[in-house]
Amino acid sequence: MEYHDSDRARELAADVREFVDEDVIPAEREQLGNGPVPEDVVDDLRETARERGLYAPQVSEEYGGLGLEFRDVLPAFEEAGRSLLGPLAMRVDAPDEGNMHTLEMAGTDEQKERWLEPLVDAEIRSGFSMTEPMQGGGSDPKMIRTTAEKDGDEWVLDGHKWWTTQGSEADVLLVMARTDQEAHPYEGCSIFLVPSDVDGVEYQRDIPHVGGEVTGTSHAEIVYDGVRIPEENLLGAENAGFAIAQKRLGPARLTHCMRFSGMAQRALEVAKAYTSEREGFGSTLSEKQNLRYEIADAETRLHAARTMVRHAAREIGEGKEARVPVSMAKVFTANVVQDAVDLSIQCCGANGIGKDLPLADFYENVRAFRLVDGADEVHKRVIARDAFEDVDESELDPVTRFRG
User: Fold this and answer.
1) Helical pair 289-317 and 70-80, crossing angle rounded to 10 deg
2) Per-residue model confidence (pLDDT) at position 35
3) Residue 190: partners with Cβ closer than 8 Å, 6 or more residues away
4) I need a labelling partner for 166 at 20 to 30 A (CA). Which of 17, 272, 280, 399 fits?
5) Integer Cα distance of 16 and 9 in angstroms
6) pLDDT tens sequence across 245-269
7) Is residue 258 a contact partner of residue 74, using CB atoms and an 8 Å limit?
8) Given CA atoms 233, 235, 236, 239 in this order, what sign does their dihedral have?
9) What are the pLDDT digits (tens) for 36-63?
């Protein structure tokens, strides 16, 4: 399917597809059923990505990336997402990709030198510490309870976070906290750069979860107990935390969509290959009409998802907030990918749930996509609010009403 991508975007995507086919997938096949992937395997893949000129395409050249426009890297994200190891290899993996974007967007020169450059080089890791346990902020971020109080030239953080992706391995944590208790949370929260080894950062556990077996990704529960950090660790302006987070989350949701749409495409490629060879009841499975139609429907919906993501990305590229297009793209793509992976497993039967193929690991990882970066219901709420914002009551003028 052709899209209105730039020549540079198509060229990069083609190069990434070749890299994934020739280097990443062979490495992936060595790890299936035996994860997590060893660090030296990831390091080797990253070195190959650098040699091929594919490493960190979304980051400015001055910080070690390729410096490409956001819309031009999205097709490459999709190609990388065809393997769970692809985003790791190219340094376009969550949460570091989103955190690098946040640092580049809102960080000071000193913050970028200390954290952004090592992050791009994969010398350190990061976590975005925003979600809190039940009584705190989650799908409704206004419920955030973690606080940061100014004490001289330091900030003192107190709170409880969990589901901080890569939190156990992180060297620096981007922590959202309330800094103005009297203001609405959207105008009274800030983001802080917290080194993971400072006093008061207390790791409680890695939360057992579905997925992550191949990459070894953790989701940590962390208590911040009187954590003291210097005032220069404030990221961006005081009380601008949600404004920064929104600028982070819009693009991050779209990059998630493209990585996962790559997963869906790979799953369908596996399913089509399997059903073209597997025979049953007098013909190959691929000749069965119902199965062909289900594949056709999955391909159609995946095309629609890709188109929605590109539209939302264009809106962001034009400087718009694009909250509704992003929400539409995110909730639609998450469900399209989940359905495509599930269908692919069904097509492959017992081979679908085994770990010789990547489908089982895809299945375990894709379910979280309908929750991370906003649950389906949160995005539907945004879409519905916009849909009912300007109701034309004149449409009901012809309706007969009760005469009392």
Assistant:
1) 150
2) 80
3) 148, 176, 177, 179, 234, 235, 236, 237, 238, 239, 240, 241
4) 17
5) 11
6) 999 999 999 999 999 999 999 999 9
7) yes
8) negative
9) 999 999 999 999 999 999 999 999 999 9
Query: 2 φ, ψ to 5°?
Result: -95, 140
Give the largest CA-CA distance in the chain.
80
Angle at 376 between CA 373 and CA 378, to 5 degrees: 75
H or E element, residue 60: none
Residue type, 209: H
User: Residue 272 and residue 284: Cα distance in Å, rounded?
Assistant: 11
**For 304-323, what is the mean pLDDT?**
95
**Neighbour count for residue 181 (Cβ, 10 Å):** 9
* The pairing of beta strand 126-129 with beta strand 172-178: parallel
Query: How far is the C-alpha of 142 from the C-alpha of 123, rounded, in Å?
Result: 34
What are the C-alpha distances in Å from 223 to residues 38, 195, 203, 216, 363? 29, 14, 6, 22, 31
**Integer angstrom CA distances of residue 159 from 1, 50, 118, 183:** 48, 39, 27, 18
C-alpha of 358 from chain center: 19
CB within 8 Å of 137: residues ≥ 6 apart: 130, 131, 143, 144, 145, 146, 176, 185
Identify which of 96, 83, 75 has the alpha carbon closest to the alpha carbon of residue 5.
Answer: 75
DSSP E strands in 264-372: the ranges are: 279-280, 283-284
CA 309 → CA 94, 256, 261, 313, 366, distances in Å? 18, 10, 10, 6, 18
Answer whether residue 391 shows pLDDT above 80.
yes
Return the closest-CA partner of residue 348 out of 282, 277, 253.
277
Cα separation, 369 vs 338, whole angstroms: 8
Cis previous bond, 95, omega within 30: yes
Which pLDDT does position 33 carry in this prediction?
Answer: 86
Q: Is-contact 63 69, C-beta < 8 A?
A: no
pLDDT value of position 217: 87
- What pLDDT does residue 213 have? 85
Q: Which are the contacts of 386, defined by CB distance < 8 A and separation ≥ 6?
A: 324
Spatial separation of the C-alpha atoms in residues 251 and 100, rounded to whole Å: 12
